Amino acid sequence: MELLKKLILLSLLMINASVAGAEPRVDITEGPVSLTDFSMGYFVDDSQALTYQDITAMPFTPTSSKTTLGTSARVTWFKVILDNATGEQQPLFVHLPHAYHVRSVDFYQERSGRLVDQQTLDMEEIDDDPLMYRGTAVYPLTIPADQSTTLYLRSHAYSHQWFAVEVMDEQTSRRALISIKTDIALLVGMMLALVVYNGLLYFATSKKENIFYSFYLISGLVWIALSYGLIASTFDVYGSEIFKLNISLITMPIFLMLFMMAVFETKRFYPTEHRILQALLVVLSGTLIWGMYDISAALKPASSLAALMMVVTFSVSISLYRKGNPLVVYFLIGHSFFVLFNGIAVLFYKGIIAHSYLSSHGVGIGIVLEALTLAFIISHRIKILEDIRASQEELKKQAATDPLTRLYNRRYFFAEADYMLELAKNRGTPLAVLVIDIDHFKQVNDQYGHSCGDQVLVSIAQTLKKHSRTKDLLARFGGEEFVVLLPEADLQEANRCAERLRAAVQALEVTVNDNDVVHSTVSIGIAEVMVGNDGVEAALNRADKALYQAKHSGRNRLCFETPELAQAEYG
Which candidate, 309, 327, 213, places its Cα nearest to that of 270? Predict the structure, then answer.
């Protein structure tokens, strides 16, 4: 029996020895040292109270040097064993590139079972701590030749525990610290460009979806710059106050919901989908209020909430697509990118999948891709609205113009004439009218046919428009009769304008039936509007009487209704 106990004890010792021997170790060899992917161990301190002495006796679980453990590992110890096999003393620098997002980091350096150094980096009391540089914690250590050093790292995260350790020599460390986060700067730059672009669109359209989209963009770029260390590396700021900017992770989906409700007009056309989005908006708003009081706690269910948001918005988008919304297909394309990349990121933040560039940067990539698609949706919607507006303007123009000559018609003339009369009253300027009639136009129709008559009519209309002043209002009243309203023109100026038109028509030659040339003349009646005493219609009646007189006086001439001026005749 005693022998059996000894065998069991010996077996346990051998198992422990084999486990201890299996601990991940990092070999430091000759040449430049740049270790960014190696094995280490971790232990989650649920009590958040274990000391260095306590942790040395705890079993560590193997993991990679870039790991994520989710929200349930707020305080985690990491263990790295460094073996110097170079035969020379080796000065090294341990980098923690994501230190900007934690509350504190403690470094414990152990050699031959004895603690040789201890350092604490508290983000709340950074005060130019030499261990922190542009968002990266840098811990220097020197390993004697042919010896090993065990490094314990205690990471206290605000919410999600995602951690990375890198080991470098001096030259490699310097290059890494002065490198620029080009990819993150590019993402943020694209978002800023979209904010400016959307601001210009808002000033052009005053649509509320532009406001929601702008706040979505701002929330997105703040979160990207914060989460990927651009704010830390640029402004050298850390701690809980900066960590509160993570509330943008909650405001971003809120503004996305509001954007969807506005751009798809769900309240008006899709009440069921509108209520679903409203319900999700209530949940997000409650989380936002919670985050204002305790951002760390509010972010704990953020990954699950993000998954819920992606499922709901994607389902609503599919529903709108099936109901025939013309814009939602573009939203589905962009949102598919968002769901795909953010789904990968959610799995990473929950510690389900391993670290990779795609998993760690999934949210930022998804946000930018969706933001670009939303910008296209806004632009496309503006184009649709502009096409509708142009169509409406064309309809208005058609309603205001004569279909044959493309001059204004009688209805538009009187509407515009009233405005021009009020303008003349306010400015104290004269106003005159011309009534123009084509001489012997019936003979043209009888001799050449109505199609040729229309051709002559169009040519005369173009000639009258060409030789009128830019500010004159020219309209066809019907048949062969035209009317011109002359702002800032007394009778003398009206006479000059009328003569210019009469002479231009007399010189006009219209070729019909390929070789027949038609010459036409016009008779014109002129009257001045008694601004302040009567209206344009009364002046038109007087001009019409003058036209009647011109017709009976031989045609191709001007006549004034006013007896004070002599009649001007032109043979």
Answer: 327
Distance between CA atoms of 9 and 78, rounded to whole angstroms? 30
416 classed as catalytic: no
What share of residues in the chain are helix, strand, coil (percent, to 5)? 55, 20, 25
The string of DSSP letters for 490-535 reads -HHHHHHHHHHHHHHHHT-EEEETTTEEEE--EEEEEEE--TTTS-
- Any residues with CB less than 8 A from the CB of 208 and at least 6 apart, and which? 262
Residue with tokens 């040097």: 65
Q: How far is CA 497 from CA 13, 271, 487, 543, 550, in A?
A: 118, 62, 11, 15, 16
Which is catalytic among the residues 480, 561, 564, 569? 480
Distance in angstroms (rounded) separating the CA atoms of residues 62 and 73 = 15
pTM of the model: 0.63
Q: Are 67 and 12 in contact (CB under 8 A)?
A: no
Contact 346, 307 (CB under 8 A): yes
pLDDT averaged per 10 residues, the chain (length 571): 44 40 79 90 94 93 89 92 90 92 93 93 84 91 92 92 91 85 80 81 77 87 85 83 87 91 90 93 92 84 80 89 86 83 76 76 81 79 71 69 87 88 89 94 88 91 93 90 93 93 93 86 93 86 92 91 46 41
**CB-facing half-sphere around the CA of 409: CA atoms within 13 A:** 11
